[in-house]
């Protein structure tokens, strides 16, 4: 099976209006920059986007919020995006805020084929509304369902033409789980190599989970919030 596609536009061309997509990365670290740009160019709309965060105003998923392509965001941290805040407060954007650990685990469970699990996170808050609650060993837990997507889009440091992926440091967050939770997984990589050039011990996501892969370019790798130590 040939998994290599020419570019981001080719990789996302069959994502249709109303699709549910996962986008990897942690903050702005390791986000699929090329694929997001391709989605903006495609004009696809009414998307449900599952991502740890919603980018910033002029970068990452903030670009898709600006063009009104996102109908619903499912995230755990959205504090760096003024356009997100404006759309939310004006009732223009559906938002499902999920505790970060719960979000990560819901995605992991989807990849493992486990339909639901129990967590204490969110019990006694608005997050618990409408959810099944059970007691275990004297403590109350919410039932949360696994989180699937029609498409998962991730960005890795290196990948081979069979789809095996290697991530670097923080970029591994969410992306390794998301790659296993989508019906179709798209990977953009900084370095696309031949089979055998990645040591099996270094593989973070096996190629069996990846359906399309391409070598990206011109990565900005922006820092979400720059801090300095005095």
From TrEMBL:
<dbReference type="InterPro" id="IPR004163">
    <property type="entry name" value="CoA_transf_BS"/>
</dbReference>
<protein>
    <submittedName>
        <fullName>3-oxoacid CoA-transferase subunit A</fullName>
    </submittedName>
</protein>
<dbReference type="InterPro" id="IPR012792">
    <property type="entry name" value="3-oxoacid_CoA-transf_A"/>
</dbReference>
<dbReference type="InterPro" id="IPR004165">
    <property type="entry name" value="CoA_trans_fam_I"/>
</dbReference>
<dbReference type="GO" id="GO:0008260">
    <property type="term" value="F:succinyl-CoA:3-oxo-acid CoA-transferase activity"/>
</dbReference>
<keyword id="KW-0808">Transferase</keyword>
<dbReference type="InterPro" id="IPR037171">
    <property type="entry name" value="NagB/RpiA_transferase-like"/>
</dbReference>
<dbReference type="Pfam" id="PF01144">
    <property type="entry name" value="CoA_trans"/>
</dbReference>
């Amino acid at each position: 099976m040939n998994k290599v596609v020419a570019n981001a536009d080719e990789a996302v061309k069959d994502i249709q209006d109303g699709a549910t997509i996962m986008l990897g990365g942690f903050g702005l670290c390791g986000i699929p920059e090329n694929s997001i740009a391709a989605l903006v160019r495609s004009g696809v709309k009414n998307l449900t986007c599952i991502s740890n965060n919603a980018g910033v105003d002029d970068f990452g998923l903030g670009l898709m919020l600006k063009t009104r392509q996102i109908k619903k965001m499912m995230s755990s941290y959205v504090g760096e995006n003024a356009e997100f805040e404006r759309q939310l407060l004006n009732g223009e954007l559906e938002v499902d805020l999920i505790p970060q650990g719960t979000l990560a685990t819901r995605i992991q469970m989807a990849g493992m084929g486990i339909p639901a699990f129990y967590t204490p996170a969110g019990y006694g808050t608005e997050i618990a509304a409408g959810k099944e609650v059970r007691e275990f060993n004297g403590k109350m837990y919410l039932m949360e369902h696994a989180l699937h997507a029609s498409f998962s889009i991730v960005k890795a440091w290196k990948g081979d033409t069979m789809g095996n992926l290697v991530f670097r440091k923080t970029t591994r967050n969410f992306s390794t789980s998301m790659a296993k939770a989508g019906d179709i997984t798209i990977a953009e990589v900084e370095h696309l190599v031949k089979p055998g050039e990645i040591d099996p011990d270094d593989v973070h996501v096996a190629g069996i989970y990846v359906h399309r892969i391409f070598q990206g370019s011109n990565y900005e790798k922006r820092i979400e919030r720059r801090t300095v130590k005095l």
